[in-house]
Amino acid sequence: MNVNLPNPLLEAKAVAKHFGGVKALRDVSLTIRRGEIYGLIGPNGAGKTTFFNCMTGLYVPDGGGFTFDGAPLIADAPDKAAARGIARTFQNIRLFGNMTALENVMVGRHVRTKAGVLGAMFQNAATKAEEAAIRQKAIDLLHYVRIEERAGDLARNLSYGDQRRLEIARALATDPKLLCLDEPAAGMNATETEQLRDLIDGIRRDGTTILLIEHDVKLVMGLCDRVAVLDYGALVIEDVPAVVQKDQRVIEAYLGA
Amino acid sequence: MDIFLQQIINGLVQGSIYALVALGYTMVYGIMGLINFAHGEVVMIGTLVTITVAGSLIKAGMPVAVAGFAGLMAAVLVCMALGWALERVAYRPLRNAPRLTPLITAIGMSIVLQNLAMMIWGRNYLTFPALLPKMDFEFAGANFTMIQIIIVLVSAATMGGLLLLVYRTKLGMAMRATAQNPAVASLMGVNINRVIAAAFVIGSALGAVAGVMVGTYYEIAHYQMGFMLGLKAFTAAVLGGIGNLAGAMLGGILLGIIEALGAGYIGDLTGGFLGSHYQDIFAFVVLIVVLMFKPSGLFGEKTGDRA
Predict the structure, then answer these.
(1) Which domains can be identified in chain A, with CATH numbers?
(2) Which residues of chain B have a CB within 8 Å of the CB of A134?
(3) Residue of B nearest to A59 (CA)
(4) What is the complex's ipTM, to 2 decimals?
(5) Rounded to a whole number, what is the distance in Å from the CA of A245 to chain B's nearest CA?
(6) Tens-place pLDDT, residues A208-232
(7) Which terminus of chain B is more solvent-facing, meaning fewer CB atoms within 10 Å of its CB: N or C?
């Protein structure tokens, strides 16, 4: 992987966010390039999830901004971020528990389809064809993350590992240019983590850029092309894993030395 | 025995109307946690619009069936527009306000709509044009009319259509996803504003159908008729478990039957001290009992799992 490729997909410029007196993000600037797996790590409370939330429109940043895919990203509503091509999963799994696995993925197709309220009410041929296409795409995605045999089960009845996979399938259903995974390996055993690693690598090979927030340092260092470290809301370093691992400031941030 | 069967039939008819109105409450509550107390007034406006449209078309010499259909369509369209406008003007600006604020706004909108209707249609009781043929049937000692049969059939068909919409279409899926977790649904690209607007528009269309049926059944209408009907339908939604579609349907029918049986037997039970015009107390006794012993209703899901 040539890390000097000047092909940015997402650029954050001096993004700031504070909650009352707490500065959760202090002028964070970083660049994610097309086709890479970009790791974002840092101790608990470092601002990783806040950064995610600003990017996906859940929070409005207090300063700075994002450029995504060549144009400013004004994500004042989450569905706009989705429409631009940013999808995410959650640290604490947030599926639609009372809908089937298949339906969860079908919801993700919303942003890429057109039929509106009137089409839904009067069920014209175009609407029906579109809904059939949505269903097929959702089945394909369940197959892709290898849980197709659970398609008809309610999401809340899936095993923990399968729920994580379902969240990834649902995010992929929006045809993202950038897939953001918020601690996908949390709570997984070694085997599940290994399978997840293969899945993430496969998604990247199939052309989706990935932003990975993760506590599992081994997973991050083994999988990511470049890594950024946040501490107390500020960017400490952004470089290839080999350099980040040896950086004195990173070691201090993690060991509290 | 024939009183019993008769009251079951009457209750079923009244209950299907409650069920249609209750669906409007429950859809909006399920998606945004708001009790739209102006919904009864939307139903009332549906009835009054039908009187104006169907009444003047009949006067102009049009066949009753055509005039009735035109009246129904006009009511549905006006109510859909009204539901959309209510959400856009009164509730959307308060989306992130404390829960009490939109509730009070809803009561305010209810009063505004009542007064608006009074200004347009006046204070007097209006006669609803006879849109359906009057035919009587008898079964096992109980009487029922063509109108009653049509009311039950139309509400069953309307509710079936709603279930298809919610469980078989993309919009329905977006509505269910939004009800479970609006923040995540929007991250998946669901436009929450459109889903909420759709819930208001669809609920109002059902209300319009109910309004036309109320008018046909009682042959009379008034600008305040939406208030009690709305409260009863709200009770039905709570009885079934507010936020749950099947609950609203069952709650409506059950409430209709409880009321009808209560009205049929209250004279005997109190030795003639209370007459059948006290039937309204049953709905509210039901409401109090449900709130005391099973506040989540018959099909209620536990709340509070919103992100």
Answers:
(1) 1-85+176-257 (3.40.50.300), 98-170 (no CATH)
(2) 170
(3) B183
(4) 0.73
(5) 33
(6) 999 999 877 888 888 999 999 999 8
(7) N
